[in-house]
């Protein structure tokens, strides 16, 4: 395995992190097409959901599997100021490392426990209308190392408000490129908050 992360807690990738579009596990980086299933590197999965009135199940807004090279490129494309503000926000408002230690100490490798509450606002998934989930994976395993976690819409709003106009434009352009929408729906999607971690 590449990278310095030592995998001590992992489990098969649960269906919540499968591609809904493909109805199976992600096998390629959504951005560059690199093979993830047979590769020897970590990758991220991000999915965004929204509850719509009249529907029982939250609707998928966005899904992405991203190799570490593309993730680094996305990170580097944001302004230094925006990246510093995001890092400071998480440092001040989340308990990611403490939560990671607590859950591993009790050997809780239950995806629902890790995803149930927003890591910043502590709001439960079934109480919020919008949320995004994140997982760190390797081949067909999900790694329990600060991830997986959930961010509610309120947290995403907080973070988006920290970003420079340049960084917001980059995120909007990237989202438009990655999501296959007819032109008449692109303007509607501009109001959706998609945060790449």
Q: Evaluate the radius of gyration.
A: 16 Å
Using DSSP, what is the number of strands?
Answer: 6
What is the straight-line distance between the termini?
22 Å
Mass-distribution shape: globular
Structural class: alpha+beta
Our count of domains comes out at 1
Helix share of residues? Answer: 25-40%
The sequence of SSEs as H and E is EEEHHHHEEEHHH
The share of residues in extended strands comes to 15-25%
Low-confidence stretches: 184-190
Give average pLDDT, whole number.
83
Number of discrete helical segments: 7
Largest sheet: 6 strands, antiparallel
If you had to describe this structure to a student in words, what would you say it looks like?
The protein is an alpha+beta fold and 197 residues long. It starts with 9 loop residues before the first strand and ends in an 8-residue tail after the last helix. It has one domain. Strands 1, 2, 3, 4, 5 and 6 form a six-stranded antiparallel sheet that branches. The radius of gyration is 16 Å and the shape is globular. The protein has seven helices and six strands. 36% of the residues lie in helices and 19% in strands.
